[in-house]
Design brief:
Layout lengths: L1 H10 L5 H17 L13 H12 L4 H9 L2 H4 L4 H8 L1 H10 L10 H18 L2 H15 L6 H21 L3 H15 L1 H17 L1 H17 L6 E5 L3 H11 L11 E6 L2 H14 L1 E9 L12 E6 L5 E8 H9 L3 H4 L9 H18 L4 H11 L5 E4 L5 E4 L5 H8 L1 H5 L1 E6 L2 E3 L11 E5 L16 H31 L11 H11 L4 H9 L5 H8 L15 E3 L7 E3 L11 E6 L3 E6 L3 H9 L4 E6 L7 E10 L4 H11 L3 E9 L4 E10 L2 H12 L4 E6 L4
Parallel strand pairs: 2-5, 11-15, 12-14
Antiparallel strand pairs: 1-2, 3-4, 4-5, 6-7, 8-9, 8-10, 13-14, 13-15, 16-18, 16-19, 17-18
Amino acid sequence: MHMFSDLKQELQTYLSPQQVKQVYNAYQFAARAHSGQKRHNGDPYISHPIAVAKILAQMRMDVQTIIVAILHDVIEDTPIEKTILTTTFGSEIAELVDGMSKLTQIQFQSRAEAQAENFRKMLLAMAKDIRIIIIKLADRLHNMRTLSAVPAEKRHRIATETLDIYAPIAQRLGMHLVRIELEDLCFLNLNPWRYRILQEAVQKNRRKHKANIHKIESALKECLDKHHLPFHTIWHKKKHLYQIYKKMRENHLAFNEIIDIPIFCIIVDNIDNCYRVLGAVHNLYKPLPDHFHDYIALPKANGYQALHTTLFGPDATSIHIQIRTTTMDNGADHGIVSYWLEEKTKASDLRPHLRAREWLKRLLDIQQTTPSSLEFMETVKIDLFPTDIYIFTPKGDIIELPHKATLIDFAYAIHSDIGNHCIAARIDKHLVPLSTHLQSGQTVEIITDPKTFPDSRWLEFVATGRARSHIRQFFKNKQHNEAVQLGQRLLDNNLTPLGQDSANINSKNLSKILQKFQYNSLENLLEAIGLGYLHPALVSYSLCNLKPNFKNPINSLPMFLKNADNGLIKFAECCRPIPGDEIIGLLNAGHGLTVHLQRCKYAVRLIKKNSGRAISIQWEKQTNGFFKTDIYIESINQHGVLALLTHNIAKADANIENIKVESRDRKHSIIHFTLSVLDRRHLAKVIRFLRTIPYTIKITRHISL
């Protein structure tokens, strides 16, 4: 009971006696479940859930949240099952506790995969009930406060994970006080020596500037009294250690090189007084140009609201002023938790609560287009940091985006179809490249074309998780469709000589084959064939109840190639086949089909090792599109010879993809051209044109033979 007494005292300040009794019943249940368990510091394990519950009670969280905090490790660390919690405490609390529990029953290939899957589970549970992440942050905060008892390696891992994931989530939810404590505790555990040195330097610096801070505070108070502007308080905001350390590290600065601009917060009653106070302080000290931000009209992504201005203060020093109402100040410190703290305020009136809901909707959207947990975790990390630019649509709607967002990010922020079919864009009515970084206040118009699709190079510059996940999903869907199409062609070419085809397979026989190869549908089986994981002949044997025999294989029909449109049909760079060449295909697990020349030395060697990889391929009579090939030209070193060569290549209607020049000796050079041609006849035409140049000695097509 003595462990519960401090928590009880906190709960009695805002919960009814009946609710306090419910929490006590949960405490007794958890104490029995964790009986005999100890923490790393030797304390009874139940002390941890009680401490987490107390942190949440200080945030004035509801009774269900407090009960879940006490029970949060019961499913994960004790024999108690979810069904027992449902019977004892109800389905709501059981679901919340389950959302807090890690996936311990599944075997993962690596710690990173396990972390990613647990992270995904937590965020999806959070999307259903925001209280889960608030409990998780309180849980992590207490773990960080007691981290000194944990072994060094584990301490480093937990602190790194907290800094990478949980502190940014706290920031994203506007929970400023939780974030700065998490960051400072991470800094202490990851760099204890630097933490203590910096702490001493900061304390010394604060003592040095104490008189000046007091002078500015007094001047601000006198100014507001003079203008008859009521205010609750004026206080000097101190920067936390990790924020200072991060600035030093990112900008490669020593402590004495950092320009420490003092920050003063002025808290008033209402929004109207915020703007009146702004006018008064601008009369007191001159404002610096381009240093004013109205976060009341345009709140930050986590719902933060205030007026920010930087002034030219006394003694030629700059000072930063933040002006906000009491409700905004509460939201600035506690973020989404202010929903529970502000008892008389509707959730719809609280910016942090609204912004958190919007973010959760985006998370669900990303989750639906990101099947891999590791990829989901990476994408969410990108999206964790608050947005700070505001872009206008032609209709005047405001779109919030992160710093360094591009036109592609803007297009996907409007709708995934707009992003997928984006072809060009205008900023303030001027056409600009799609990779252009946006700036606040710009008006953007996206131009689309239904025949245009995403470019994989977009992934190199997009800034938002939403854009990245939709682009990746497009290419995954494209690869799936191409794999199914290729797999069906390969399978039918093997089934046709046996009097079968993939469209008319006996359903019972198909079920047996799917079970044998462990696929749940014909589409997935065809995809596996197209990706090169299964040989079509092996599947054909099984479908026709024949024993596999690669020594005397089925006389399958050749697959005919017309163009290079299917991304899973690649042309080998070692021999670069073009229409008119005799070719053969090699299955490459996970990458589809690679086309080689039949006489390619590398292909012959691979077939000797594994003849089952070979696929019969021929060119169609009519092909379309350009195909790459390499030629080597030995020439006499003469002024203008390269210009003559490129001119004749262009004259022969071929495209130059790459040029490489090597000096053989003082008089001769070897010029390597990678060209795009239609077929062998087109290549022969190019070579004829090149031979008309008197300085060419020898022209050969480069093939790995």
